[in-house]
TrEMBL record:
Domain of life where this protein originates: Eukaryota
InterPro entries: Peptidase_aspartic_dom_sf
Keywords of the record: Signal
SUPFAM superfamilies listed in its UniProt record: Acid proteases
Name of the protein: Peptidase A1 domain-containing protein
Taxonomic lineage: Eukaryota, Fungi, Dikarya, Ascomycota, Pezizomycotina
Signal peptide: 1-23
Organism of provenance: Arthrobotrys oligospora (strain ATCC 24927 / CBS 115.81 / DSM 1491) (Nematode-trapping fungus)
Record keyword Signal present: yes
Length: 452
């Protein structure tokens, strides 16, 4: 059985948008990853890692400083779960700093940072098992965002029944603790792709440097300037806060093309789950997956389509851009993913030109066993390159609209929900600065291979 490799999304950002005269609160969804200068700053790390010989530590998610003195954790957003959970330091008790390879450092890195309740002078245990209350600051928020009585859960087991995921979680689902704490009465969340820099400012420079800001989340109303045209609205299914095996966000896929070739196949339309968890891989039915492999001339390595990067199309007209069309029964909505995002170059000593597409086969037994969301999946980055996403828990619906990005040359008033990046200096129709940001983020993402 081949080992399945999947890619973890890099560089996201969260933005809280306050209407009218209120201020906009920027909350980066960051990723520290890679050897050398892009590692996690030591002041944020409980167990710093020796970065010689290419070792490094990674984090991704919303950076929270919890307790007194502050302890640093990163929590990836979950839109179907309402609670925030962090990992307890006891999870790494069986490791020591003397272990070969720095096991305790890798342990902390795997858990996105650790929290020790007994080391915080302001922590108070809740009447609920595994929950507590403490002071919290959302690091790098602009302006500051903090609360002295933030309620969160502490996970001290490998497979906590409350979440079913080894990572910490930042609940933004119905009745979100975070929303009730900082934005009571607000149940709307907007997601916007900025193309490598936040429209509301970046965190200050630091050494090691902070990563790119690529996404923003907007609370307390949607930013009308970030999207245009008619909304493509879908119902939110029954929330599943205890597991992400039943994600309530779905789309009916009616057409897929790669380059100039249609690849939906004889199976016809299918329903796909939308994965907002931060993964980068789209999961297609086997018939579509096989046609994708044929259309791009890929070979399969570790369960994923792979390529000699120097042999990939260099003419924009021949690029392996991926387009997916959804339908609500009356109208269509199409999103596109450029070749630069779809196929990422990986650094392998024996294969310097090795590249891999973020596409998996939904019917592969390894995928079926290991992927938390069963069946076909459309990843967040696929939607966000051309779309603005709105989630409205109060209305029980979510929607897509054509995003207004910094690289758009012009926006027609009656745009019909398709988006093409601005023609620029870089091949593939992406402006030079955006292209460099995307290539950098893709290269870093490709450096982190997770075994499912």
């Amino acid at each position: 059985m081949p080992t399945l490799s999947t890619l973890r999304t890099l560089t996201l950002a969260l933005v809280v948008t306050i209407k009218s005269a209120q201020a906009t609160v920027v909350v980066p969804y960051v990723s520290y990853i890679g050897p050398g200068p892009i590692g996690v700053p030591d002041e944020f790390v409980r167990y710093p890692m020796n970065e010689t010989e290419g070792m490094y530590q990674g984090r991704f998610g919303v950076h929270l400083a919890i307790g007194t003195p502050p302890q640093h954790v990163w929590v990836p957003p979950h839109f179907f779960s309402s609670e925030t959970y962090v990992k307890g330091v006891s999870l790494c008790d069986n490791y020591t700093t003397a272990d070969p390879g720095g096991s305790i450092e890798y342990c902390e890195s795997d858990y996105n940072g650790l929290f020790a309740a007994n080391e915080s002078s302001t922590f108070e245990m809740s009447s609920e098992r595994s929950f507590g209350v403490d002071t919290v600051t959302v690091s790098d928020a602009v302006p500051g965002l903090e609360n002295n009585e933030f309620r969160f859960g502490i996970q001290t087991t490998e497979q906590p029944g409350a979440v079913g995921d080894d990572l910490s979680t930042f609940g933004l689902g119905p009745n979100s603790t975070f929303l009730q704490t900082f934005f009571p009465g607000k149940e709307q969340v907007g997601i916007y792709y900025t193309g490598g820099s936040s429209t509301h400012g970046k965190p200050p420079y630091s050494a090691p440097p902070r990563p790119l800001v690529v996404y923003e989340l907007e609370f307390d109303g949607y930013n009308q300037s970030h999207f245009t045209g008619e909304k493509f609205t879908q119902p939110i299914g029954p929330p599943a806060p205890l597991s992400n095996s039943s994600n309530p966000f779905t789309l009916n896929v009616t057409n897929i093309s790669v380059g100039r070739n249609g690849i939906l196949g004889g199976g016809g339309p299918f329903v796909a789950t939308v994965d907002f968890s931060g993964r980068t891989s789209n999961i297609f039915p086997s018939s579509v997956y096989d046609l994708f492999v044929q259309a791009t001339g890929a070979r399969i390595v570790d369960g994923m389509p792979s390529y000699n990067s120097s042999a990939l199309p260099s003419n924009p007209d021949d690029f392996y851009d991926l387009a997916i069309t959804f339908s609500d029964g009356t109208r269509d909505f199409t999103v596109s993913l450029p070749q630069e995002i779809l196929i990422s170059q990986l650094s392998r000593p024996n294969y310097p030109d090795f590249a891999m597409a973020n596409i998996l086969n939904a019917d592969d037994p390894v995928v079926m066993r290991s992927w938390p969301v069963r069946g076909p999946v459309i990843a967040l980055n696929q939607l966000m390159f051309t779309s603005y996403i709105g989630i409205d828990h109060a209305a029980g619906e979510w929607w897509l609209a054509k995003a207004v990005h910094p690289w758009d040359e012009s926006i027609a008033p009656t745009n019909n929900n398709t988006s093409k990046p601005k023609e620029g200096a870089a091949a593939g129709g992406i402006g030079g600065n955006l292209n460099r940001a995307i290539v950098t983020a893709s290269a870093l993402a490709a450096a982190v291979i997770l075994l499912c």
